[in-house]
Amino acid sequence: MRILSLLILALILYMSARQSDSPHGRDFKITCSECHTADSWKFNKTGYSFDHNTTNLPLTGQHTKAECTQCHKSLVFSEAKTDCNSCHEDIHQATVGSDCSRCHTPASWLVKNVNELHRNSRFPLVGAHNQADCYDCHLSETRVRFDVPGINCIDCHRKEFLATTNPSHVEAGFSEDCSGCHPVLSREWAGAGFNHNFFPLVQGHAGPKCSECHASPRFNDASPECVSCHKSNYDASTNPNHLEANFPLDCKSCHSLAPGWTPANYDHSVFPLTLGHSTPGCADCHKGNYTSTPTDCYACHSADYNNTSNPSHTSLGFSTSCVACHTTNPGWSPAKYTEHDTKSFPINTGSHRGAWSSCTDCHANPSNYAVFSCTNCHEHNKTDMDKKHKGEGGYSYNSAECFRCHPSGRAD
To answer: Smallest Cα–Cα separation from 224: which of 247, 248, 251?
Structure first.
């Protein structure tokens, strides 16, 4: 018996050396002893030493329980395919592709990570879709076919699109791209939050219903201009009366989006309301005319000009350009006449610069600035001046004659 065993083993070794004659194919490089024993050619599955993990198909999960002949249909083992469809019938009928491993594992045919699989597809299951039944979207004659109806909302929700009446999507000509109004993360259609960024619905615009601005079923014909919705508010305003004042119809030039139109704040940069101009009411200057109110001071302050006695602006013929002397400080003070050097007598330049401290140094009569005195300021005396001007024609010892000959204050 021992001699017979040695002969069988020698035969096995001989057959191993002659691979070209192996029933497992010319390129089979595994020695016979890895699968066979000297006792029998019959394959002993529990005792073989070949490591299947070195191949393109490691045996894991349910594959460890499969019979070799289920995959290896012939003794040429290299002819066995590693793709699932070679052994397993595609019951999904190519509706989910030919790669079974995208959804299934060798451990089980059951799929427990549908959401994760969908995240890698063209249609992740988010929002209400996360709770939907597979067969709500994948409609087919069998429950194992997963025909794709489309990845656009309208492919599944055309019925809702056509049936909607508030507003009527068909009448309004709405886009069939549902996600433009209904975010996919929402769990319901109503109140899903239309993207209204082109006309932000904030503050006073946050509360109204769509139909308050969109009067017609065609929602795309609503005007973004304030007056298109608020003409009645414009017409009814009395403080001030917008119609009588002929206010512009551009409401946002004065009003914000705050409810109740208040506070209203007109951009008065055309005539800054500072200091003394910051407190009057609008009607104090506008007198009912809000579109052509003059901006020069005298238009509003002619009474102040005419009634001023210290000095008398009318008798002195002062310029009606109030800003020549006054600022917008309340009470018109302090006032500073800036044209004395160019229109009257140089007191800020030449020999008179710094020689006076107040207007009354020369204008002793504050009620009449046309009267001035030269002789009161200088250490002149009539006797000396008469001698100095002897022979000067028209000489007279009075201030008016001093100015006539010395209009610039120069001695020569």
So the answer is: 251
- Tens-digit pLDDT profile for residues 277-307: 887 777 788 877 777 788 889 998 999 999 9
Whether the pTM exceeds 0.70: the reply is: no
Contact between 119 and 113 (Cβ < 8 Å): no
Give me the residues of the chain with pLDDT under 50, please: 19-20
Tell me how far apart the alpha carbons of residues 315 and 370 are, in angstroms, rounded to a whole number: 8
Position 364 scores a pLDDT of 82
Which pLDDT score, from 0 to 100, does residue 302 have? 93
Q: How far apart are CA 161 and CA 211, in angstroms?
A: 18
Give per-residue pLDDT as tens, 102-112. Answer: 888 888 888 88
What's the rounded Cα separation, in Å, for the pair 196 and 394? 88
ω before 334 within 30° of 0 (cis)? yes
Q: How far is CA 226 from the centre of its chain?
A: 21
Q: What are phi and psi of 399, to 5 degrees?
A: -65, -40
Residue pair 127/184 in contact (Cβ under 8 Å)? The answer is yes
Distance CA 303, CA 125 (A): 78
Asked if 298 contacts 321 with a C-beta cutoff of 8 angstroms, the reply is yes
The Cα 99–Cα 97 span in angstroms is 6
H or E segment and range at residue 299: helix 297-307
Task: Residue 210: name the closest of 225, 236, 226, 191 by CA.
Answer: 191
CB 264 within 8 A of CB 258: no
Nearest 5 degrees, angle CA 324-CA 329-CA 330? 125
Nearest to 356 by CA among 412, 409, 407, 411: 409
